[in-house]
Amino acid sequence: MKIVDMHSVTKTYGGATALDGVSLEIAERERIVILGPSGCGKTTILRLIAGFIAPDTGSISIGGELVSKKGRIIKPPEERNLGMVFQDLALWPHLSVKGNIEFGLRARGMRKAERETRVRTMLDLVGMADYADRKPAELSGGQQQRVALARALVLEPKVLLMDEPLSSLDLELNLRLRKEILRLQETLGVTLLYVTHDRDEAFDMATRVVSMRRGRIEGVKTVSSSRGETA
How far apart are CA 61 and CA 75, in angstroms? Predict the structure, then answer.
């Protein structure tokens, strides 16, 4: 089933073209990695799908429903059922690990008993149950990354959007968290749209790698079940 459909999308900023007629289809449970250098338009794609900005031309549908079209945001971010992990993680420093994970559920008005059950389950899934009462500043980089993942996934999103989430980590931790993200994606069955400038990371994480340059898609490669091998 097709879960995301971008059709002939363009986006400009102050006369500079960020995206030039980009079309992209993503199926349920796929792991799509957008690969390219800074300024190629890959983060703009995430922001468009998330609903933070509107396309200048073209359309975007999620789950078969039109959410943006030609200068209009039809469905705002909070109504798209997406999860997002930012490059800087954007954890709330004054909230505990539990409070950060619970934040989106509170915003949705979920009852306390259900919130607590979901948060407890997610803490176990990401291995952070023993750190529930700590603040982000008391955690390592890898632990903060797990909290950001849990906060996004606890909302049971249709699609998880990740914007260069591992770029600030050393290689050993980067490799370990790649495996963790893949484990969670497979366990929960969420669709993944992941952005990186690192080729090795892209082919390790993807079922399809979308290469971009200067606002256009240059090529798409399918990655076999044996990671790193292309079909």
Answer: 10
Burial class of residue 16 in the structure, from the number of CB atoms within 10 Å of its CB (0-12 exposed, 13-18 middle, 19+ buried): exposed
Q: Domains in the chain, please, with CATH?
A: 1-81+159-231 (3.40.50.300), 88-156 (no CATH)
pLDDT tens per residue, range 73-102: 999 999 999 999 988 888 999 999 999 999
Q: Which H or E run contains 202? A: helix 199-205
pLDDT tens-digit readout, 134-180 = 999 999 988 999 999 999 999 999 999 999 988 888 899 899 999 99
Helix, strand, or coil (residue 98): helix
Length of the chain: 231
In angstroms, the CA 205 to CA 192 distance is 9
The Cα 101–Cα 90 span in angstroms is 12
Record the pTM: 0.91
Q: What six digits make up the tokens of 13?
A: 């900023």
Q: What contacts 124, CB < 8 A, 6 or more positions away? A: none
Q: Which two tokens stand for residue 185?
A: 């994606």
At 209 the three-state DSSP class reads strand
